[in-house]
Amino acid sequence: MNGGGEETGFEVAIVVPKRSERERDESSGDCVEFLVRELEKAGLIVERFRGVPAEFIKVAAPLETLGRAAADLQMKKLTYIGMELQFDWDQVAAFVRQPDGSLFSWCERFNCFRYLIYGIVNRTNTELTLKFDDKEFLYERNESLLGKMEAVGIVKQVFPLHDEVRRKQLLGNWALNWLDFTWQPIDEIYSYFGTKIATYFAFLGMYTRWLFFPAVFGLAMQIIDFGPLQLLVLPAFFVFVISWAVFFFQFWKRKNSALLARWGINYSLSEYKAIDTQMSSLTQKTDWEKKCDTNRLVEKTRLQRDEWLDLLLRFRNNAIVILAIICLQLPFELAYAHLYEITETEVLRYLLTAVYLFAINYYTRIGGKVSAILIKCENNQGEESSAASLVYKVFGLYFVQSYIGLFYHALLHRNISTLRQVLIQRLIVSQVLENLIENSIPYLKYSYKKYKAVHKKKHEKGLTPEKSVRLFTRVEKEFLKPSYTASIGDELEDGLFDDFLELALQFGMIMMFACAFPLIFCFATLNNITEIRADALKLLVMLRRPVPRAAATIGAWLNIFQFLVVMAICTNCLLLVYLYDQEGKWKIEPGLASILIMEHVLLLIKFGFSHFVPEEPAWVRAHRVRNVAQARDACSKQLLRSISTLDRKWD
Amino acid sequence: MNGGGEETGFEVAIVVPKRSERERDESSGDCVEFLVRELEKAGLIVERFRGVPAEFIKVAAPLETLGRAAADLQMKKLTYIGMELQFDWDQVAAFVRQPDGSLFSWCERFNCFRYLIYGIVNRTNTELTLKFDDKEFLYERNESLLGKMEAVGIVKQVFPLHDEVRRKQLLGNWALNWLDFTWQPIDEIYSYFGTKIATYFAFLGMYTRWLFFPAVFGLAMQIIDFGPLQLLVLPAFFVFVISWAVFFFQFWKRKNSALLARWGINYSLSEYKAIDTQMSSLTQKTDWEKKCDTNRLVEKTRLQRDEWLDLLLRFRNNAIVILAIICLQLPFELAYAHLYEITETEVLRYLLTAVYLFAINYYTRIGGKVSAILIKCENNQGEESSAASLVYKVFGLYFVQSYIGLFYHALLHRNISTLRQVLIQRLIVSQVLENLIENSIPYLKYSYKKYKAVHKKKHEKGLTPEKSVRLFTRVEKEFLKPSYTASIGDELEDGLFDDFLELALQFGMIMMFACAFPLIFCFATLNNITEIRADALKLLVMLRRPVPRAAATIGAWLNIFQFLVVMAICTNCLLLVYLYDQEGKWKIEPGLASILIMEHVLLLIKFGFSHFVPEEPAWVRAHRVRNVAQARDACSKQLLRSISTLDRKWD
């Protein structure tokens, strides 16, 4: 069995501690044996493999097992008539296939796996006693076997496995394909990593492609002398960049919905979130609601109350976060920027920066935790909605952390040359460093774990060091690799949070200070071309295969990008004022200034606050969604049969 | 038969010229006799009535006839599972009933009537010769009888009839119910006038209700002396008014979707337009598309090309309208405002105003016609979309016409007191005048027509003048009443255009000059309270029953209102500058001013231009909508049967 880890098809691995062979008896009470038998009974193909650091149970599933699981899960799948209906294995012809011809997407497959594995429960009428080595535990009735084994510490991990053939294929035509700067095999990425990661790379690719235009403009401004028109070039560049951003995001929305159509995800962008989140909140309440169905008015009142309470709660949480940022982080950032400006020796500056970095790191981590706690008392509907709420809150922290220093140099001290230096430094040094850290830390972790495991093995078996190189099979290597997690904690977000954050901070930097340093777009373009490959390599080589997520848009990040565009309009205007008024002669009356500030606040209210009050009352939405749900549940079977026959006719 | 026009149930009238009794022979060739027979064959209940001005054929329909017509029309109706399916008379239990318990809404009923009446075609294999008096005409095969009769001038008009019982009921508890200031029986209005008019009144009522808040604030500012805080009151009022408007429109959207839910119109606000318009454009192309279905790529390319061509065309048309306004109307308006300012004698001013009013009336009419022509070359999807396009274009004209004079006084000449005078004059005098004209012109027209008809009748029969008072039956009176048409032409819009225009101009006036004259909100409130009753009276008493329209939102007007809010932020800031800087001491550098202008233009681009590029590519939407349509067509029957049974179970 050793070395046989290269088969395709095994998609999930369960890790249990290794025992020495002599202790492994074939008595019926051994829980690992029991688990394997139960897995096989559930229709899964199981392969056990004793590796160096632990024992692995690799699990594959025939299509039919997955199909039955999907039907049990009441999974909704797109049919050929464009409606999502409950999956039914007997009417399989009615369901739209993936672009690569398979029935289930990776995300659906993983959900089925999880359902199958965690769905093994004790269906007998008695409690069973299972043992592992010398440990014994009671396996109670209707208890999930894997859940119990995780609870008592026997199952260490359950993680998705890479598919070696497709991984190598992607490595060749994506991560190591340096010839096409921004082209990526998005469909293959989708079918290997799922919607959310594919959407990230599609966005990154399109963003980089679009970046070429302002990069060329910026480069032209640096090289060409426009003579008497020089004064007009900068405002023209500013207008160009803002229009570019506006159109980019509009075209991104189009691209996103085109991608969703291609992948058979049948939601219009605007409807997507609404139905999806409502559905999940509805399923939790179905029992209660059935009783209440007779009394529509009571339900309506309840839903309305819930809606406003929820809004109030969210408003309060956001207020807390904003206050914390303004009262705690802002003074700290300004103090650092000021101290940095007035210290004279380089040594002190480095010392200061070190202290600052340490403190800010600590602060950010606390901020992330506080945000996660705050979000738990919000009544977010669905996981993706909670994740979006977290993204907004944490981005506030990073926004202040990243830009306050820049604003300090640019606006308070009118120090454009320092601003340019800091921008170059941030964009090149910090992003290169970040990429290095991003990729090297997982590798170092992995190497360390590997070294430890080898060391252990050598101790055990007394093998010669030369042989240890060939010791590791694929599944063992993957076990040692770190998983794709966010730096702020892995409860609500995965590693995409960090990748999007990097992108958003870069976008903010290049947009908000575009007029101060137009060449910055070139650096960003170069940076992003390497970023695509670096992220691809990270996902394919450095890390475990990430757990797929269902979200089909870039979600909260789109709003953040849009917000940055509005910010960019204001900051660039200020920058232009400082650039054209180098002697500081332009005066403004305090009255006029306060009216201008009021105008900006009101425009913010106009365009921002309408987001706070949802356009559709909760009860209307609940009503509509329940109707759709009823349609699905009641008529699924009949509809499916007719679609299957239709499908055959069309063929 | 005379005097029998008071029955309910007769909902449509067909008007043919009156002939003297002796000429009316019972030969088979008489086309009116033929029409009546054909109408009866179609299952309609027909009543002929010889009135004073013409002969009327009143038509009623039993529910079953309407149901069969709806099924023939392939009308989509909401079912109890929340999906719209093709109507089927046999599965009537599956469809959601109206709030008043009837199966069809007034709009659906009228569509069925129209289908039934115009659906009478010559199904024989030969051409028939029909005659009317001495005129003969050929009734060709597969030709619509009513269409032909309209073409040769025999059928003068087909119009919907008032329902006397319900009209009187509405008159009592709505139009003449002065005790409830803003409460209206919206559901009854909906079932009597259809969605669009009910939505207008719901909006007007809510707007008036919300107006109380700024009206009270404005009144308080007038009455109370805030002492040292006086300087801060005006900005506070400004912020309050803008926030008020933002929240009002957000809550209006909520109310609108709640209304739609109550009336069984199953569309989310955002999806409504998309699906609906696409559906209509799709049905026109179905044949062509079926052929093309095999070749998805070709279709995609075609749809993309069409989409961009369409956008370009619309862009060009808007550019033409905007240029025409700036180059032709703007100088004219400014010239008038300037001349008005410099003329000294009152007589000359009146003369000037008369010339101006004459010219502007002419200009507006030409503008409306040009817009209608421009819209015809646009590829608007659906009638409501064309109407929206017209509304935007014509509102541009009215906007400049109504506000440029005000801006001239307020901003160019800093003449706040003249501005206040003009505002009072416009709001009170012109709106009162407009209401009077609005209501008296139809009445005068009606009286004149009535007088003429009476005169004619007296001539014919030689009756004594005392008797003529009781001569008219309801249907004759309605025939003499004018119909509910827009002042800019009745092709795309009905009278709601004028009502909404009045509302939008009023809203713009009170919002954009709020700081100059806070008391204006009180006048607007009073105005609107009378406006509700005046419009109700107009619809119930002065005019014929309007042809119902399907649109379920206030459509283009919402965007216009939102635009006015943004304008209000900018104009009020300027007003505040002028109010606080009465000596004109505040100076602004030209550089700073140009940067500020650039900022405002960019903010406009950010928030306005994203409307130009649709979020979803046309081919994605076509794909999605076609799928839904297929679902409806293919599975309608089966689904309906199961819903009917479900329904019975739930009951």
From TrEMBL, chains A, B:
Q: What is its main location?
A: membrane
Source domain of life is Eukaryota
Bilayer disposition of the protein:
Multi-pass membrane protein
Residue ranges crossing the lipid bilayer per the database entry: 200-224, 230-252, 311-332, 347-364, 390-411, 503-529, 550-580, 592-613
Output the Gene Ontology terms for molecular function. chloride channel activity
Subcellular localization is given as: Membrane
Print the keywords alphabetically.
Membrane, Transmembrane, Transmembrane helix
Task: List the GO cellular component terms.
Answer: membrane
Record-linked InterPro entries: Anoctamin, Anoctamin_TM
Domain Anoctamin transmembrane positions? 189-626
Report the protein name in the record.
Anoctamin-like protein Os01g0706700
| UniProt organism field | Ananas comosus
